[in-house]
TrEMBL record, chain A:
Keywords: Signal. The keyword DNA-binding does not apply. This is DUF6705 domain-containing protein. It comes from Aureibaculum marinum. InterPro entries: DUF6705. Residues 1-20 form the signal peptide. It holds the Pfam family DUF6705.
UniProtKB/TrEMBL annotation, chain B:
It comes from Aureibaculum marinum. This is Uncharacterized protein. The lineage of its organism: Bacteria, Pseudomonadati, Bacteroidota, Flavobacteriia, Flavobacteriales. It comes from the Bacteria.
Length: 193, 180
């Protein structure tokens, strides 16, 4: 009898705590961003899901050189869930060194929730081979912020083009003037390792 | 490269044009502690980046949030805070953003002593981006409520007809449109 009561209790709790999940494929997410209700689209719980496995091709370690600087990006796929919006998305960490190996910027060891880790973002409307990551730099108060676009191409998608589209939002507490951008504002070519 | 256009207004009614920032499309809203009463600027529409997808050759577009940014909110609050020193009436303080999705104005009816303990730009940017995925007005109002946390910031939408509608959140976190 005890077991039956426990089972009924567990089932009741699952029913009450269960929210209807509305699924949006990751490649369709961009279509919702301009809507009044964004990705929520009038629903209580939305999952932006990588149903067609379109995000995996961006993951891995990517390296390249541009303007005498070495760029290394480590891109992973993850799932976030704030109880209202669940999302399959990409995170990107990076290390930039100069020609002498001196570190210009390094976010490789930062945790997922660090603002300095690039985070998705969406597959752009124009191509399933390009993804937009949100960028917040360590001098974001002085304009290090914007959107990083990554595009895969080549045989087996082993090449990547990457660039920063600067937003340049300046905060009140910026006292040093506009900060130099550390991510490439021109297109840099990376190779999958 | 597309840029925003905007002005700050001083207490004598004079408008000064804003400059753009470091390679970006945003404007640097410079505030004069003794004189600034508000700002007005245009937000861009989505614009082509000038870059193309290497696989398909299709040009891609930079999407723009047609709403005040966290930096805009902080600047607005700073103008409000300065009324403690410059004798500008708080009722004159404003921030206005003009976009193809509508014109929005911020006003402040709270206590300027509550404008304190603001977080870093990095934290605000991150919180804002995540919330704005849930809708332009809803995301922004939730950002004010949950992250800026200063009572008395009011958001108004000015329709093309000239009608002004206040935007607030109800208890369930949905947007309510009021009447003026």
């Amino acid at each position: 009898m005890k077991k039956v009561i426990t089972l009924i209790l567990v089932l009741s709790l699952s029913i009450f705590s269960c929210k209807a999940q509305h699924i949006i494929p990751v490649e369709k997410a961009v279509d919702y961003l301009d809507k009044e209700d964004g990705l929520m689209d009038g629903k209580d719980y939305v999952y932006v899901k990588d149903i067609n496995n379109l995000l995996t091709k961006f993951t891995g370690t990517w390296k390249g050189t541009y303007n005498s600087k070495n760029f290394e990006f480590k891109i992973v796929k993850t799932t976030t869930d704030d109880g209202e919006l669940k999302e399959d998305l990409l995170l990107a960490r990076y290390k930039i060194t100069d020609s002498n190996g001196r570190v210009i910027e390094n976010t490789l060891d930062l945790p997922d929730d660090s603002p300095y880790v690039l985070f998705g973002g969406y597959i752009i409307k124009e191509s399933i081979y390009t993804y937009m990551l949100n960028y917040i730099g360590k001098n974001t108060n002085c304009g290090q912020n914007g959107n990083v676009f990554i595009s895969v191409y080549g045989t087996n998608n082993t090449k990547m083009k990457l660039f920063l589209q600067v937003a340049g939002e300046m905060y009140f507490d910026c006292t040093t003037g506009a900060a130099k951008q550390v991510l490439p504002t021109k297109v840099v070519t990376l190779t999958k390792q | 490269m597309k840029k925003e256009t905007g002005y700050v207004q001083d207490k004598n009614g004079v408008f000064t044009q804003l400059n753009d920032t470091n390679g970006g499309h945003s404007l640097d809203i410079k505030i004069d502690r003794d004189n600034t009463t508000g700002y007005i600027y245009t937000h861009l529409n989505d614009f082509p980046t000038g870059k193309t997808d290497p696989k398909t050759g299709r040009p891609f577009i930079n999407k723009i949030k047609r709403m005040f940014s966290p930096a805009d909110v902080i600047k607005f609050l700073q103008i409000a805070k300065y009324t403690e020193y410059n004798n500008i009436p708080l009722s004159s303080v404003y921030g206005t953003m003009v976009s193809s999705s509508g014109t929005y104005t911020l006003k402040f009816t709270g206590n300027t002593a509550d404008i304190k303990d603001l977080k870093t730009a990095e934290e605000y940017e991150s919180d804002y981006i995540k919330l704005m995925k849930k809708g332009n007005e809803k995301g922004f109002l939730r950002f004010l409520r949950d992250h800026i946390k200063v009572e008395g910031i009011e958001l108004y939408k000015i329709k093309n007809s000239g009608r002004i509608r206040p935007k607030t959140l109800d208890e369930s976190g949905k947007v309510e449109t009021g009447d003026c």
